[in-house]
Structure of ABC transporter substrate-binding protein:
Amino acid sequence: MQRKGKWLLTALLIFGLLFPLVGCGKKEEVHTVRIGEVTHSLFYAPQYIAVSEGFFEEQGLKVDLKTTWGGDKTMTALLSDGIDIALVGSETSIYVYAQGSSDPVTNFAQLTQTDGTFLVSRNKVENFTWDQLKGATFLGQRKGGMPQMVGEFVLKRHGIDPHQDLNLIQNVDFANIANAFASGTGDYVQLFEPTASIFEKEGKGYIVASFGEESGHVPYTTFMAKQSFLNENPEVAEKFTRAIYKAQKWVDSHSAQEIAKSIESQFEDTPIDIIETVVERYKSQGSYAQNPILDEKEWNNLQNIMDEAGELPKEVSHDTLVNTSIAEKIMKE
C-alpha cells in the first residue's frame, strides 16, 4: 500500500512537470505585421484602440506601427516591402493600378468613411458661409491626395471654383501644412485633427466647417496590401481584420471619454480634453466606419470625386481592387 502510494505520487510529479511543456507546445505562433500609416491622427482611433485594448495581441499579432507621412511615401514603402500593410487613402491603389503593376494593391478593410479634415480660418468668423472664401488665400492639401480632391469637390458644391475664385496654395508638403499656416501663410487652411482643435485652443485659428460632413461617405482611409501578401498570408489578413472589426465595435459602443482614456498614451503631446473633443467630433459626424467593408457605392463615390478633380487616371471596377470577402467572413463569425 505504501509502495503504491509512492508510485502514485511519483506519477503525479512527472505529470506536473510535463503538463506545462505540453501547453507550451500548443502556444500559437506570433506574427509581426508592419503597418505604415499615412499620418498619426485621432482620425484613426479604432486602429489605436486595437493596440491599446490588446485586440491585435489576442489574435497572435505583434504590430509594428510607423508613420510614413503622405500617400506617396506610404505607397512607396508598401511597394518596396518596407511595410506589409498600408493605412492610406484608397485613391493610391488606383494610381498604382493605372501604372500597370503586376502585383496590384488591394483594399481589404476600411477604417474611415468620411473626409477627416476641417476648414480653419485665421480669424474668428461669425455666421460663416462658404462664399466668404472667394478672393481668400487657401492653404490646401497636396495635389492628387484625397484631402485635396474632397476639398475641391466640396468647394465646387458651394459654387466656388478652387482655381479661379481662390488663391490656392498646394505646393506645401503634407507634414508642413500646419506649420506654414501657423507661420502666417493663408487666410484659410484645410487641417486634420488634432491639429485643428489645438490651433483653435491656442487661438491660432478657428474651425468653421467640416469637409467630412459636406462630402458624404467615401472610402477615405483603408488598410491595403499587395495582392501577393494577401495570397501568401490569408490567416494573418483575417486575424488583422478581426482585430480591427472588434475595435470598430468597441469605438461605436463606448463614449468619447472612454476612447480618449484608452488611447491617451499614444498621443502624449495632446491634452486629454483635446483628444476627447476630437473623438466626439469624428464620432458625431460618422467618420469612423462601423465595419471593415468597403462597399461599391463608396468606391464609385471615390472615383466620382477623383474624376471631378481631374485626377482619375482610369475607371477601375470595385471587384478589381477591393476584397470584401475577408471582412464578410469575419463579420459572420
About this structure: The longest strand covers residues 105-112. The longest helix spans residues 2-25.
